[in-house]
Amino acid sequence: MAAPEPDPRPGPTSGPSSGPSSGPTSDSEPDTGPGTGPGTPPGTGPGRAPAARSGPGPGFGSGPRPGPDTDADADTDADSDSDAPPGPEPLTVPSMSAGPDFGLRPWEMSDLPLVREAAQDPYIPLITTIPPRYSDKAAEAFVRRQWDRAATGTGYPFAIVRSRDRRPVGAIGLWLRDLPQGRASIGYWMVASGRGQGVTRAALRTVTHWALHDLRVPRLQLFIEPWNTASAHIAEDVGYRREGLLRGWQQVGDERRDMAVYGLLNSDRPADGRAVAED
3-class DSSP state for residue 179? Predict the structure, then answer.
């Protein structure tokens, strides 16, 4: 898994490593966490998203949108409002194929069984806002948070779905907090029943290509715990390069953890000489 999602909930979010009372304190991105896919950590009624604006959002297709990613102050006078930078616009999460066996789509209320399975995982609740103790109410709040992220322009949260039976098996997100600086983050997690089938690699490749080629994001990055070699190998297979180690980068449970950072530029070229975004 790679990088936790932005957590919109107020207040501190640290907790014991056996399962925090709330999500991660780090804001380093998605509802997927640092290496929350393959690998084992050490020691261890249907509804749909409300309609949003069509199109990929401001700045896409021609580079990042200018200005800070903040809302205008509604209490200022009309003259001040006219000079304030625009806030982020709502985003529409598309449905996409991730090869013949998997697809990506917006979150639905019918995905509560996936939230239940993720809540039972010893690691996923530590690095995402998946509730560590499942209840229908907490799971529904989690799904609504995914809708809110698109509605507020924070990013694109996807459920990963197996094609043959439409069963959701994981999540991946493209997070745009740093888009004004020309970069975005991707994170992902996979429940145990979805691992070992190539789904993580297919989902990461699909979102990476879409972000670089269609949205023209200049730089993508992942944050993966150093022990999670399986997730690191998937990132490298897709074309990401390990760029360094960020010491004490993120709170995971009750401790600060190091994160390896992996990056991929729109201008990077593989061995055959073609731009990555043109693959």
Answer: helix
Instruction: End-to-end CA distance of the chain: give it in Å, rounded.
Output: 24
| Gap between the Cα atoms of 58 and 60, Å rounded | 6
Distance CA 36, CA 79 (A): 47
Angle at 237 between CA 189 and CA 271, to 5 degrees: 150
DSSP class of 265: E
Residue 6 near residue 149, CB atoms below 8 Å: yes
d(CA 253, CA 10): 17
11: left (phi over 0), alpha (psi -120 to 50) or beta: left
Q: What is the largest CA-CA distance in the chain?
A: 58
In 3D, which of 156, 178, 120, 211 has the Cα closest to residue 32?
156
Distance CA 98, CA 200 (A): 10
Tokens matching residue 20: 């925090």
Which residues lie closer than 8 Å to 77 by C-beta, 6 or more apart?
Answer: none
Q: Measured on CA atoms in the order 250, 251, 253, 254, is the torsion positive or negative?
A: positive
- The CA distance from 161 to 98, in Å, is 9
Has this prediction a pTM greater than 0.90? no
pLDDT tens digits, residue range 169-187? 999 999 999 999 999 999 9
pLDDT in tens, 240-256: 999 999 999 988 888 89
